[in-house]
Amino acid sequence: MFDFSGWIISVSGVCLASIIIDLILPSGKTNGVIKRVLSYVIILVLLMPISKLFSADFSLNELFYNSEYVLQDNYICNINQSKLSAMENSICEDFEKVGIVGANVSISADIFDVDMKINAIYVDLCNVVISGNFENIDIKTEVVRVVQKYVIVGEDKVIIYE
Question: What pLDDT digit, counting tens, does each position of 118-138 carry?
């Protein structure tokens, strides 16, 4: 079913816009070109109901707008950088909960990809102090366990510096 009221509003809007543009533009060669373009637009708007009668999928939106979305690389990079920073902070906080205080975590990933593939996780234990009741823990096993709680990677991707 065709939306007749929408079509009337489109026709009147295009006609009103063409009248306003005609009043604003000075006389000359560009005025003639713009009037010709506006007349083609008016014809397209007037012919829209005819295409609906033949059940063709015709829309001015398809003519003038591209339906594909383009993701901006900077936006993806910033979002992924924020995710990595949050993961690094969360891992460091969990290290402190299990008695590993002073560890530094750095995650290497492809931040320009939408899916953000993680290449490696570097854990620096050079300045670590084992606190409280956790003096007898296996540090490497505990580090891998905490990291894998946040990131699904193999043990070979968790690189520990002591």
Answer: 899 999 988 888 877 767 777
Q: Are 107 and 86 in contact (CB under 8 A)?
A: no
Amino acid at 106: S
73-161, which class in CATH?
A: alpha beta
Confidence of residue 106 (pLDDT cuts 50, 70, 90): very high
Produce one character per residue of 9-48: b if its CB has 16 or more CB atoms within 10 Å, e if not. ebeeebeeebeeeeeeeeeeeeeeeeeeebeeeeebbeeb
Closest to 47 (Cα-Cα) out of 14, 71, 72, 74: 14
Q: What is the spatial distance between Cα 132 and Cα 155, in angstroms, rounded to a whole number? A: 26
Distance between CA atoms of 49 and 24, rounded to whole angstroms? 30
How many Å apart are CA 138 and CA 121, to the nearest integer? 19
DSSP notation for 134-150:
GTTS-HHHHHHHHHHHH
Task: List all residues 6 or more positions away from 30 whose beta carbon is below 8 Å from its beta carbon.
Answer: none
Whether residue 162 contacts residue 125, with contact meaning beta carbons closer than 8 Å, is answered with yes
**Which range is most confident: 39-53, 100-114, 127-141?**
100-114
What is the identity of the amino acid at 60?
A: L
